[in-house]
Write a structure and sequence with these properties.
The protein is α/β, with parallel strands linked by helices. Helix content is 48%, strand content 17%. It contains eleven helices and ten strands. It binds S-adenosylmethionine (SAM).
Length: 344
């Protein structure tokens, strides 16, 4: 199928001009919804969207803003080859348990909202049907020469991706990647992260946005503590070591933080000059997940950081004060009565 040019000017968003945080958040969600409407036109929307909880929109808002406002404007100018890696690409379309609105999958968000276009996009679909619809959706918008898509286990296919990026770097004289690691829980094995970071040995750096499901992981570890028999091999593979078992003895209240600290320590050991920011996605005071942003310190003051911290503050503060309401309004569950509602 021929790809289509995107019918809306999605790359540059008017939302960046909105000064009011609540309206800005609404605007970011609404442009995602507009993009979702475009994606649902083919294949039809009833065709296997990935169904998530409403708070997962936040990871996609972060991805959208980072790609649009930070990553592609900087990297697109500096590197001859810029790629997006999406090992857990899902089905290319998301919908929500709480309301039937549609948001493009992460691969299409990166593609649509890039200020400078990616030179190549790598995406993996896991199961037969997911892969089929993902492929249809991505091929609709991304030209074949810029799309690498495969079906199967990201932990295995990562070797093909890193090999291809190394070849692209040789061909174009430089390459840089953004990897969005978005598993449901334990699926992103440590060796996969390691292989991406080891591209540095070939002169290829990358930024990472990693979703750490600290709460779900804590739940599993809690079950082990209470004596349930669980095959711990997936946890060994997830952390890339058996040393995680000390977490079993942590008091429940410290477990989520313990998991996060241990994972961050492992990342710092692996990536030289690691620069890390953690964005906590919480609604109603319960942490639902953490987004780990990982990049490399540069000699110059990192141009990324100010903007990423701003995004972090925006998402975290917006979240505490506004996010639930903004999402509800965007989902059509509540009407916006502007300032009146916000002051309540
Ligand atoms: C949270 S969803 C991804 C959503 C997607 N990133 C988005 O935002 O649109 C995680 C996806 O990874 C898939 N998955 C699970 N295990 C996988 C594996 N080993 N390799 C690749 N994908 C996997 C799941 O089937 C699911 O579709």
């Amino acid at each position: 199928m021929d790809h289509q040019s995107v019918p809306l000017p999605l790359g540059f968003s008017q939302c960046t001009k909105e000064k009011d945080d609540f309206k800005r958040l609404l605007c970011e969600i609404n442009t995602l919804k507009e993009a979702g409407e475009i994606v649902t036109s083919y294949p039809p929307r009833t065709f296997k969207p990935y169904t998530a909880h409403h708070w997962t929109i936040l990871k996609l808002i972060f991805l959208k803003m980072y790609v649009r406002d930070v990553y592609t404007p900087i990297i697109g100018r500096r590197y001859p080859f810029m790629v997006f890696i999406d090992p857990f690409a899902g089905t290319g379309l998301n919908t929500y348990k709480e309301a039937k609105i549609y948001i493009p999958g992460s691969t299409l968000i990166a593609w649509f909202f890039a200020t400078f276009p990616f030179d190549k996009v790598y995406a993996i679909g896991y199961e037969d049907i997911d892969y089929r619809v993902l492929k249809l959706r991505l091929e609709r918008y991304i030209p074949p020469s810029k799309l690498w898509i495969a079906k199967g286990d990201a932990n295995i296919l990562i070797d093909q991706i890193t090999k291809d990026i190394r070849e692209m770097k040789e061909k174009f004289g430089g390459a840089h990647f953004l990897a969005f690691i978005d598993p449901e829980c334990f699926e992103a094995q440590w060796q996969m992260i390691e292989k991406l970071i080891e591209l540095e040995n070939y002169g290829i750096s990358g930024d990472f946005i990693i979703l750490l499901q600290s709460r779900l992981i804590a739940r599993t570890i809690g079950r082990i503590r209470s004596g349930e028999k669980i095959d711990t091999k997936i946890i060994d593979l997830f952390f890339g070591t058996k040393e995680w078992t000390f977490l079993i003895d942590l008091p429940s209240g410290e477990l989520e933080k313990g998991i996060m600290d241990f994972y961050l320590e492992r990342l710092k050991e692996l990536k030289s000059r690691a620069l890390i920011e953690v964005i906590s996605i919480e609604l109603f005071r319960a942490i639902h997940y953490h987004l780990i942003y990982l990049t490399r310190k540069t000699k110059r003051k990192s141009p990324y950081l100010a903007t990423v911290r701003w995004l972090k503050d925006f998402v975290e503060n917006a979240e505490k004060r506004y996010v639930d309401r903004a999402i509800r309004v965007a989902l059509g569950m509540e009407k916006m009565i502007d300032d009146y509602l916000r002051k309540q």
